[in-house]
């Protein structure tokens, strides 16, 4: 398989909403390991005449904070191995959290293209609020609303240039 895009980020930033917006067909993979449910959804998409696969990571549920962070790290490392391009989703409502910092520090060292998608930018005021995410040290921001689709075209234009 080639042309793989993985969506990573902490819970509730809107990864699955973005995945659902991007994909045209999907297959769900659910894997239960000692109380932690992990699922990675795989879907297919096309943009500007380029076909690619999309992976939604981190649909697991757990009530331990440590397991949580460890799971996210695992998912990010797996995504770096498996994908050609990473979309790192963050949430303008929540601002930068410790988990965002942890993910960013892994991705800064990844030798794969990383696109920082600031989600939930549903209105113009939130564009101003999104600027704090430059602090993650990952370069350009793509302000999107996975809910309305705003900004996702610009993000995909940039992503498929790698294919
Ligand atoms: P995930 O845990 O990262 O997969 O996040 P989800 O896709 O499940 O979304 C978490 C919550 O954020 C849900 O209640 C979504 O409806 C909401 N959400 C997702 N995208 C947006 C958005 O663009 N704007 C707003 N306001 N809410 C969003
Ligand atoms: Mg999800």
Please supply descriptive tags for the structure shown above.
163 residues; alpha/beta; Rossmann fold; 5 helices; 31% helix; globular; binds guanosine-5'-diphosphate; binds magnesium ion
Give structural notes.
By secondary structure, the chain is an alpha/beta fold. It has one domain: P-loop containing nucleotide triphosphate hydrolases (Rossmann fold). The protein is built from 5 helices and 7 strands. It has a 7-stranded mixed sheet with strand order 2-3-4-1-5-6-7, sandwiched between helices. Helix 3 links the parallel strand 5 (85-91) and strand 6 (114-119). The longest helix is centred in the middle third of the chain and has 18 residues, at 65-82. 36% of the residues are buried. Mean pLDDT is 87; it is low at 28-37. The structure holds guanosine-5'-diphosphate and magnesium ion (MG). Guanosine-5'-diphosphate (GDP) is lined by residues 9, 11-17, 119-120, 122, 145-147. Magnesium ion binds at residues 15-16, 59. Belongs to the TRAFAC class TrmE-Era-EngA-EngB-Septin-like GTPase superfamily. EngA (Der) GTPase family. GTPase that plays an essential role in the late steps of ribosome biogenesis. GTP 1 binds at residues 9-16, 56-60, 119-122.
């Amino acid at each position: 398989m080639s042309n793989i895009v993985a969506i990573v980020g902490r819970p509730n930033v809107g990864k699955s909403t973005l995945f659902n917006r991007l994909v045209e067909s999907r297959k769900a993979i659910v894997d239960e390991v000692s109380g932690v449910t992990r699922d990675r959804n795989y879907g297919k998409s096309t943009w500007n005449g380029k076909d690619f696969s999309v992976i939604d990571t981190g649909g697991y549920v757990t009530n331990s904070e440590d397991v949580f962070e460890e799971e996210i790290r695992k998912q990010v490392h797996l995504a770096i191995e498996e994908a050609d391009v990473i979309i790192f989703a963050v949430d303008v409502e929540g601002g930068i959290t410790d988990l965002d910092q942890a993910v960013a520090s892994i991705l800064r060292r990844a030798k794969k293209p990383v696109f920082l998608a600031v989600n939930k930018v549903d209105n113009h005021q939130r564009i101003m609020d999104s600027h704090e995410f430059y602090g993650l040290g990952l370069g350009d921001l793509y302000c999107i609303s996975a809910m309305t689709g705003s900004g996702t075209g610009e993000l995909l234009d940039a992503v498929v240039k790698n294919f």
